[in-house]
Amino acid sequence: MTDLAIGRPAPQQEFNLLKVLGPVHVWGLGVGIVLVGEFMGWNYGVGKGGAWGALIACFVSGLLYTCVAMIDSEITSTVAAAGGQYAQAKHNIGPLMAFNVGLFMVLTYTMLNASDVQVAGQLIQLGAQQLGHDIPWQPFTILCLAVLTWLNYRGVFATLTVNFVITAIAFLTIIILFVGVRPWTPAVMMFHKDLLTDLPYGWIGVIASLHFGIWYYLGIEGTCQAAEEVRSPGRALPLGTMCGMITLLIAAALTWYVACGLMPWEFIGWDNELAPLYDAARATGSPTLIGILFIGTLLSAIASANGCINDAARAWFSMGRDRYLPAWFGAVHPKYRTPYRSILFLTPIAALFALYIPLAQIITFSILSGLLNYTFMPINMWAFRRKWPIGSIRRGFEHPFHPFPAVTLLILCIVTFFAVYLGYGRQLLAMMAFYIIASLWFAFYRYRYVRRGAQFTMPWPKPQGY
Amino acid sequence: MWSILGPVSWVVSAAIFVWLAWDFFRINAQYSEDSLLSSREGVDELFSAQAAGDRHD
To answer: How crowded is the C-beta side of A386, counted as CA atoms within 13 Å?
Structure first.
């Protein structure tokens, strides 16, 4: 092993993030962040649009995220840098967009991390209560955050290997539940014929349920944050992201089918016990399925928090490295090769939100920031293909049917914004105001510190038209 | 037994955070700021080191 690899101190030595990840880690990162949305969260869409409405939202949101995955696969496999969409915006559009996109991602993942660890603590409390013991949830939330922060601090390979394993186990529990309810013999355990009603609130309810339909897939774009640490970006990122999206489409369909066949839509839509898939297992009456789904739900929350710590820290680190934020955040640990200052800086913020802010509020912050990020992607794609047309630079992956995915994504984002406005209009406006104020701060104060020329790192020719 | 799980969790969490803080300050003191901030986007040192090794062979 070289001195470089073991981190021996030497003057003028460079410490970069290590390229040690493969497609399974990319899959583990993307699906790991998202899969918790199958275990909880999506069900509030049933409350808005009924069971059929939630299924339509599941498919429409699936289309939205398939477009996200296609666009991300092409651009990230070409702009292989930590920071994901932030690095893309920096190269393709400009500094103000890059600053905003970086903030969208940090808030999306930090808030999602806070809600995940809060849910993990509350699940442990719920499990203890069902065994007849009343214990507080806060110590388990903080323990979960501490262990995952430590894991992320110590290195990306172990972090995402763990994420791959626990995500695969959580996905397997959904398959086990599906097989356990014997779908090949309808009307024995599941009663779709009786439970599926018409749209209770009409088509406006279906549109409203899109707000929660995105829970099935929220965070798959996080695979881009691994771009600087994968061994082969051109292969690993498209492969890991597309396989992740296929996994999530299967998981979402199975989740809807099982939950809506076991429980009435009125119960699923207002499930106050956090986890509808766990409740579906309880509806079967099988202690084995109940135990397995409890483990699956807990692991999915832990995997999501783990991936979110990884992604939020990389976005924050990249912005520090380019001086969009204080350069201090752009440090890499000499031994573990992780953005250790960014990891540690974001942890207390996640802890405060997890301990003191209600789950619905934290999740809404996360969803809104994620949605703003998706709205940037079609603009990003058009700029990328216009400035560097096919053949002008070497791409790791070229997505087909351009510009249809970008147009479809933009239309679906606008419809989903309307859906969010129906339920959380004030939060949406407050969030927009926050980003406008942050943009003013960046444009009139912070921009003077940005390394303007050095931030463009891709060995590309000048863009067309410049 | 269940009642001690909460305090044990707080203690383990505190121990982890103390270790993280210790390592954080140790690294900041041991390495120069220039070295810690030396990361560059798009650098592939693993393969370049391997390629250099291959050339030496």
So the answer is: 11
